[in-house]
Every structure is written in structure tokens, then in C-alpha cells.
Amino acid sequence: MHGYPRVREITVDNLDALARGCAILGTGGGGSVETGLLSARRALETSGPVKVVTLDELADDDVVVPLSGIGAPTVSHEMLANEDDVVRLAAEVERIVGAPIAAVMSSEIGGNNGVEPVGWASRLGVPLVDADGMGRAFPEVQMVSMNVVGLPPNLIVLADVIGNVSVVRPVDGAWSERLARALAVASGAHSLMADYVLTAEDARDAVIHGTVSQAVALGSATVGQADPLAALTDVLSARHLVSGKVIDVERRTGGGFVRGSVVVESTGADRGRLVRIEIQNENLVVLDDGEVLASVPDLITLVDSASAQAISTEMVRYGQRVSVLAWPCDQLWRTPRGLDIAGPRAFGYDLDYVPVEEIGAVRA
């Protein structure tokens, strides 16, 4: 990611902007940012600001730990993590690799998983890498850029609120998802996870750069704007698919995921048109009478039509006035391997991926 002002430190002054931006990049998932915002602010106030570094600023053999919460967002919003979870997890990682952790990185910049690493980095006293493994949020462990470029997962460490610390050495990305998900479900459908523990040298060509800076820029874009929705649409170069009222929400939690759909009835010139968004933690596909308007791996986000604040899947309610935006994903996800890992068919949809900018805008 390029073109956004470089952020060199996260403090209590720009934390809110980061959270708003992470919510937008969350595409409905990654967990609602409210709980992460509270815990990150507490950490910053007690342990101090977090330096934001690029991978080029780290030594080749420095240990970088991608961190995230794994499980159903509906659960993580209610079952708060223990402040000591990350300390126990970090101690186990350092014991296994035989070296101190040099920096923390968000596994996914989207949603709460983009905000919580600030608090974790502050609590551990290490910097936060200006990068992540998705450029958005995805629901499954193997759906990370490190897997796309062919790095083996090698090591996964999980810590839960009960106090358990689990170590998994999966043979590939698919097994990393199966095993980590099973452990998270056993822990009440949510755990803290370090996955794809790697060196700075290996990470440089395997992650999506600049996404912390991007999130802060997106979160700042709507502040003080007369038309926040237009401002956000412009900075994202997004397609505005529909604006309207949420008239149906079907949502169920099981197997460590939130699955379902949201139906929005247009209130624009095409009043009465129904648009359905399919979800699995994240917004996956937008359909208009069977026609695909956007699909993964491109980003699809529901925002409040007045404020342009993102609405996560677990917070969508009947009667909300929302707008649906979609914009292009990182080019890595448009490669054949990227589409195999996180394209429509990876989620069970029998359809070919078409870039959102080629589908065309459908204006409200």
C-alpha cells in the first residue's frame, strides 16, 4: 500500500483514527473495534506510545510475530481477552525460537485485529510493523499473504482467557486453519494467536506494506467533512453499490465463525431494489437479483450512510441506514494462488472472480 502519509508512532491522539480505518478495512470482520480500542488505549496510557517501523528498519534475523484474535467476532465482542494473554504467548514464542521478539505485526489490519496489536506491542515494549498479512480481514488462518507467497506456517501459538497456551506445528496452511480453529472453539470460540512467526528478512517479500499508515489515513479522511460518505468513497476510490435500509439480517454463530446474510433495500432513485450481502465473519459477495456486484478478495464494507462509520457483521441491525462500498484488493490476492486461497470458490461460491472495477458501478 502506497500513497498514504507515513505513521511513525501510535499514541492516544491517533488511536481513534486507526480504529476507524481498521473498521473500514475489516470488510465487516476482524471483530468490532470497540473492545480493542478500549484495551489499546489502556495499554498506551499505562505502558506508553508504540513506535511504528517498516521491515527495512529491522535486522534480517529479527523475530517478527504476527498476532490476531481467532474465533467468532460475536464472541470476542463479549468475551474480553486477559491482559496477560499476550505476555504468556510471547514468552512461549521466545522460548521456542530462542530469541527475543523484535516487533509485533497485525496478521490482519481489518477490524479489531488491526487495533489490538497496538496494545499488545505497548504491553510487550516492542514496535509495531507498518504492514499486515491481508490488507483487509479474512476469516481463515491460511488466508494470509505469507501463505500466498509460499512460506510454510511452521509455528502457531495460541493463548486463551483460561490460561492455556497451545503450540501447533501444522504441515500446511489448510491444517493451520483446522487445528487453530479447533483449539479456539474449545476455548469458547476465541483465542489470541501468533501465526507465521518469521524473521524480518522473510517477511519483507511476504506481507502487505504500509497498512497501519493506510488505516490511520482512512480513519482521518471523514473527520470534519460535510459529506463523510463522499469523502470516504473518494479516498478509497470505491464503488458505491447501494444506499438504503437494512430489512433483514440472518446471522448464526458456529464452528468459530459468524455466517449469514444481510439484505439492504435501496432508498435511492431505484427505491425498492434489494441487495444481499453474504457473510462469513467478513462480507464476501454482494448480489443484486442474482447478479454479482462485488466479491472476495475485493473489499466490501457496510458503513453508516450519514457518518461513514463502518458497521461490523456482528453489529448490523434491522432498520439501520447503510451504504455498501467496494474497492480493489491488493494485487497479491488477484494472482492465481491468491484466488485459490481467498477467491469466491474458496468460500464455496460457484462463480468466477471479476475485479470490482470491471463489474461497473451501480449507483444508489
Give the gist of this structure.
The chain has helices at residues 15-25, 33-47, 73-76, 85-97, 112-124, 145-148, 173-186, 200-203, 211-221, 228-236, 336-342, 356-359, and strands at 9-10, 50-53, 63-71, 101-106, 128-132, 156-159, 165-168, 190-195, 198-199, 208-209, 239-254, 257-266, 274-280, 282-288, 291-295, 299-304, 321-327. With 364 residues, it is an alpha+beta fold.
How far is the N terminus from the C terminus?
A: 29 Å
Instruction: Tell me the number of strands.
Output: 17
- Structural class, from secondary structure content? alpha+beta
Indicate the CATH architecture of the largest domain.
3-Layer(aba) Sandwich
Number of helical regions: 12
- How can the largest sheet be summarized? 10 strands, mixed
What percentage of amino acids are in beta strands? 25-35%
Low-confidence regions: none
Helix-strand sequence: EHHEEHHEHEHEEHEEHEHHEEEEEEEHH
Identify the notable features of this structure and list them briefly:
364 residues; alpha+beta; CV3147-like fold; 2 domains; 30% helix; 28% strand; globular
Describe, in plain words, how this protein is organized in 3D.
With 364 residues, this protein is α+β, with helices and mostly antiparallel strands. It has 2 domains: 9-213, CV3147-like domain (CV3147-like fold), CATH 3.40.1610; 226-359, no CATH class. It is 30% helix and 28% strand. It contains 12 helices and 17 strands. The chain has helices at 15-25, 33-47, 73-76, 85-97, 112-124, 145-148, 173-186, 200-203, 211-221, 228-236, 336-342, 356-359, and strands spanning 9-10, 50-53, 63-71, 101-106, 128-132, 156-159, 165-168, 190-195, 198-199, 208-209, 239-254, 257-266, 274-280, 282-288, 291-295, 299-304, 321-327. Strands 1, 2, 3, 4, 5, 6, 7, 8, 9 and 10 form a 10-stranded mixed β-sheet that branches. A 7-stranded antiparallel β-sheet has the order 15-14-13-12-11-17-16. Strand 13 and strand 14 form a beta hairpin. The longest helix is centred in the first third of the chain and has 15 residues, at 33-47. The radius of gyration is 19 Å and the shape is globular.
